[in-house]
Amino acid sequence: MKFICVRCESFMTFENVEVPGEQSLGVTFGCSTCGSKVAMITNPGETAMVNALGVKIGGRTTPPAPMEVTRESLMDMKPDARPATPSAAVQQAMLAKEMEKPAGGTCPFSSMIAQMKGEGATAGAAPTFTWTADATARLERVPSFMRPMIQMGVENYARKNGITTITPEVMDRSKNDPGDLNWSAAAERRLDNIPAFVRPMAKKEIERIARERGMTEVSEALMEESKSKFLGMGY
Amino acid sequence: MAEKDLKTILKKIHFTDDAQVMKQIVDQSLQVKLRMGRIRRKIVVMSGKGGVGKSMTTANLALAFARAGLRVGVLDVDFNGPCIPQMLGVTGGFEFAAEGVVPTTGPHGMKVASMAFLLRPTAPLRWKGPMDLSPVWLGLQEMSVVREFLADIFWGDLDYLVIDLPPGAAADKPPVIIGYLPELDGGIVVTTPSEVAQAVVRKSVVYARDLGIRLLGLVENMSGVFCPQCNAPVSMFDGDSADLCADLALPLLGKIPFDPEMARACDTGTPLPPGHRISRYFDAIAERVQSVVEPQAAAVSR
């Protein structure tokens, strides 16, 4: 999917993305020449229909994973049958890659969805954690495109703390885990302004920058400095 | 200002079709063809009526083919009530590998694939998403799941793939299967002598023929019961499938009496040994099926 500014005869560029509702995404594109903007939202039903056909929105860049439709949409699945979560490197690289795309190449919106759904994950990777039924049910209530990120965050927290069984309590603790970095109150407020859809990725990226610089606290100044990487994300 | 012509604009800014939706759909069908191309014979076991013994027939027919030295796969397409693994005593799961989904190996080296390998043991079949209750979406979703079971399972080279269909006279699975497998060798219809069952089964025969599915014949299950005292078969129902077969011009492949040993074998996942009286019934049915789908091979083996 692409948007064209008819007046300027050019592709519009991706500006930001929001989650207006369950299984729906809102995305804004702007014309870099005249400044016009267009926003679109996906209809949950249409999105579900296309996904049910096994068609990858925006086109395929990698071959389909074995039984991907079945495994992505089945509830109450055995843990060893679940699709592998995208690696941390894949997820961390994702946002930066989207931001670097020139206007008119592939569709940034759809490729973001594609990657969110697990493209680039290592097929057949052995699961390391046991998710309890309660925890699985809670994870499954998260919109599917956000699930891999949430799962990765919880499992990273569990790995760091030597936990092998994921329970709802572990999920709660992981949400508030400051890791080895503290966040200033002002920085946390700025973080809350980022749409939930991209917040985990943005948080990871900012923390990566902080660690690279040997910082122990994420400050508002660092948030401001990092803002250029996440232009249009509302914080 | 006159409206700009979008076609002209697109020529200027080089529009490309990144999604290639049609190519994706064609690739899906090609993948089914590639996978199924390595299987010599594909047979579905069906019935309009539930509880007549389709899965039992599927499991035991597959065992009979395997006993005859054929390379056999069993595909359980009864997504809501998968019971083939239990009947065959298969407890493994799928392995997700680069070449596809590796099925579990069962008795006599037969390969087994079932929804039971994906679901938690007591979990019903439920799909995620905001449209999980929409019949239109559900139809599409399950069509894709059938396709993935045909396209993504790494069966390798097989002589026979026996596919267990769910019950339903006008269920959605037969048209999906025949859509993806126009080269299907045929269907086997299972019934009991009960007139209630036969009335429903009759409808499924008409429906299957409307879809272009070649019917190889009918298996009558619960065709009497072995007397616990004298071991002689005793009738359980007044009806007889011979009339139904004559009426529908359908060969009667065999009549299977109810045998508590068979029921126990299915419940415990311990297939009956070769030479057991019920095994012999299925050996005869397998031979008849083989003589219909590949008359030359059957003649040689005799």
| Amino- and carboxy-terminal Cα gap of chain A | 26 Å
Category from helices, strands and their pairing of chain A: alpha/beta
CATH fold naming of chain B: Rossmann fold
Largest interface by Cβ-Cβ < 8 Å: A-B, 48 and 48 residues
Q: Report strand % of chain A.
A: 5-15%
- Rg calc of chain A: 18 Å
- CATH superfamily assignment of chain B? P-loop containing nucleotide triphosphate hydrolases
Ordered list of secondary-structure elements with their pairings:
The complex is a heterodimer of chains A (235) and B (302).
Chain A: E1 4-5, E2 10-11, E3 13-21, E4 24-30, E5 37-41, H1 44-52, H2 68-73, H3 88-100, H4 108-116, E6 130-131, H5 133-140, H6 147-160, E7 165-166, H7 168-175, E8 182-183, H8 185-192, H9 199-212, E9 217-218, H10 220-226
Parallel strand pairs in A: 6-7, 8-9
Antiparallel strand pairs in A: 1-2, 3-4, 4-5
Chain B: H1 6-13, H2 21-36, E1 39-46, H3 54-67, E2 72-76, H4 84-88, E3 95-97, E4 100-102, E5 104-105, E6 111-114, H5 135-151, E7 158-164, H6 173-180, E8 186-191, H7 195-210, E9 215-226, E10 233-234, H8 241-248, E11 252-258, H9 260-268, H10 277-293, H11 295-301
Parallel strand pairs in B: 1-7, 1-8, 2-6, 2-7, 8-9, 9-11
Antiparallel strand pairs in B: 3-4, 5-6, 9-10
Helix pairs in contact in B: 2-5, 3-10, 5-6, 10-11
Structural write-up:
The complex is a heterodimer of chains A (235) and B (302). Chain A is an alpha/beta fold. Chain A has helices at residues 44-52, 68-73, 88-100, 108-116, 133-140, 147-160, 168-175, 185-192, 199-212, 220-226; strands at 4-5, 10-11, 13-21, 24-30, 37-41, 130-131, 165-166, 182-183, 217-218. Chain A has ten helices and nine strands. Chain A has a three-stranded antiparallel sheet, with no helix packed on it. In chain A, strands 1-2 form a two-stranded antiparallel ribbon. In chain A, strands 6-7 form a two-stranded parallel ribbon. The two termini of chain A are 26 Å apart. Chain B has one domain (38-291): P-loop containing nucleotide triphosphate hydrolases (Rossmann fold, 3-Layer(aba) Sandwich). In chain B, 41% of the residues lie in helices and 20% in strands. The mean pLDDT of chain B is 88. At the A-B interface, strand 2, helix 1 and helix 2 of A face helix 1, helix 2, strand 3 and helix 5 of B.
